[in-house]
Amino acid sequence: MELRHLKYFLAVAEELNFTKAAEKLCISQPPLSRQIVELETEIGARLFNRNNKKTELTEAGKYFEKEVTALFQHLDQITSKTQKIAQNISGEFRIAYISSIYSGVISELIQNLKAVFPYVNFKLFEISTTKQIAALEQGKIDLGIIRSPIKSPKIKSQLWFQDGFSVVYNKSNLQINAEEEISSLKDETFVFFNKEYAPHYHEVLLELCAFYGFTPKVAHESNNINSIVQLVKNGLGISIVPSNIAKNNTDPEMGFIELKKVNLFTDVSLITAKEDESEITKVAVDFLLKKNS
Questions:
Q1: Which CATH number fits domain 165-264: 3.50.50.60, 2.60.410.10, 3.30.70.3400, 3.40.190.10?
Q2: Which CATH class is domain 3-86?
Q3: What string of DSSP letters covers 119-180?
């Protein structure tokens, strides 16, 4: 059975007239009749009742018409999706981000991309800066959102925004009314990012504490910003987090004091492969850049 047999069958089923169906298919009637006979022989069922006056579908023919019509509709969908993949607007797009980036922005990004590229399967990964760089170099992700300088000949980096820092504490355990009181925290227990997980960020936190005249007593470490905030909420210490976290935290138990006097910032950058010119990447980067313009 070949595809042409099915096309010829549908033409006859629609016209219920071999002469009209042949004209529609731009072939003569005898070859069309032979193709239908071949199809019926292969299936082992009569599809049409035909005489000199009219042509009708048999019950088997009606069922066959329904199923073949559905088959061609599915084939059209397959063809359309294949074309979209070939045009680089389908497939899979992998986005990595660090935990200190507000997830609401990431959610908005996915919603926007899904509206523009409905056939794409978007995947999100929370990965440290160091691992993101390695993953991008190896082609395991398509877009990364990192927090620190980057040096790689294979990667293109664009500054997304500069983020300041804020002290975070549990209001029931501690009261800080102004930035001038930060130096009094020298005897407090701190919760920091793990040094091995984010070495550059860890060093920046130490610099911040040095600016206010003390060395922090780090009792707990984590490689996830949300875990750090939760530890602080549970009364296990205080911490210094990106101001971006403070802006998006509405928990009434938590207090934040922005460190405005110190001239220290962390760059949040968007990274892509240097040779990546895909439309999806361009739309994703443009969307994020506009969110902070």
A1: 3.40.190.10
A2: mainly alpha
A3: TEEEEEEE--HHHHHHHHHTTS-SEEEEES----TTEEEEEEEEE-EEEEEETTT----SGG
